[in-house]
Amino acid sequence: MRKLFFVLFLFVCFAVPSLSKVIFSCPRSNQIALTFDDGPSPGFTDKILDILKKEKVKATFFVKGNKSLMHPALLLRIKVEGHDIGNHTYTHPALDRVSFARIKEELTKTDQIIEKITLTKPKTFRPPHGRLPPYKRRYVESLGYDVVLWTILADDFWTRRRGMPSANYIYRRVMGRVRGGDVILMHDNSKEIVIAVAMMIKSLKKRGFKFVTISEIS
């Protein structure tokens, strides 16, 4: 029985064509997708939402299940204000090091929390650190998710070697790489990104870019 299950699993993951896809850029050169990982984070996500509302810009938030459970009001605000919500696992594990069962558990728990709070089930998924081997990507796709990657990493996170980069560094890094059609990966968990996002949006608008959510390009 176990052998039969394994054969069926391989067939679903590798032989049956997937209706899902990998998204890493926008289809048009005048489009930009702002995306935020690892939230919702009180004190930061709400300030980013304030900026997006003021600038009339929509974005996509790839949220963690455990943080969504802790901060349901913030998650609901993301939804109510018209932004996309994607799955970013429950605890942010390195998926190249965990089992298929653990992957499914991480995704399912997060989906259940998001659906309970927002009445919407996510259709997109971003793997933590982008670490998702092809055979596991096929498994995630078989569960019905589009896998979302990126073209520009804001490098807006703390490391032991350098500490937390400044808002100006984040802004210059992103704006120096934008060519159009980009999906920009950021993290809504620092004061630096709050400052940088405000500057980014103004500069991107001046350059004539249109902001889109992942659902608008998927």
Describe the structure.
With 218 residues, the protein is of the alpha/beta class. It has a single domain (26-217), classed as Glycoside hydrolase/deacetylase (TIM Barrel, Alpha-Beta Barrel), CATH 3.20.20. Helix content is 44%, strand content 15%. It has 9 helices and 9 strands. Strands 2, 3, 4, 7, 8 and 9 form a 6-stranded parallel β-sheet that branches. Strands 1-6-5 form a 3-stranded parallel β-sheet, with helices on one face. α2 (45-55) packs parallel to α8 and α7 runs parallel beside α8. It is globular, with a radius of gyration of 18 Å. It starts with a helix and ends with a helix. Mean pLDDT is 91; it is low at 1-19.
What's the structural blueprint in terms of helices and strands?
Elements: H1 2-15, E1 22-23, E2 31-37, H2 45-55, E3 60-63, H3 65-70, H4 72-80, E4 84-87, H5 100-118, E5 124-125, H6 134-142, E6 146-148, E7 152-153, H7 167-175, E8 182-187, H8 191-206, E9 210-211, H9 214-217
Helix pairs in contact: 2-8, 7-8
Strand content: 5-15%
Please give the count of helices.
Answer: 9
The domain count comes to 1
Order of helices and strands: HEEHEHHEHEHEEHEHEH
Tell me the CATH architecture. Alpha-Beta Barrel
What are the low-pLDDT stretches, counting only 5+ consecutive residues below 50?
1-19
Measured as a percent range, the helix fraction is 40-55%
CATH superfamily: Glycoside hydrolase/deacetylase
- Oligomeric organization of the protein chains: single chain
Output the CATH topology.
TIM Barrel
N-to-C span: 38 Å
Q: Provide the CATH top-level class.
A: Alpha Beta
Provide the residue-averaged pLDDT. Answer: 91
Biggest sheet record: 6 strands, parallel
Number of strands: 9
Q: Structural class of the helices, strands and pairings?
A: alpha/beta
Radius of gyration: 18 Å
Large-scale geometry: globular
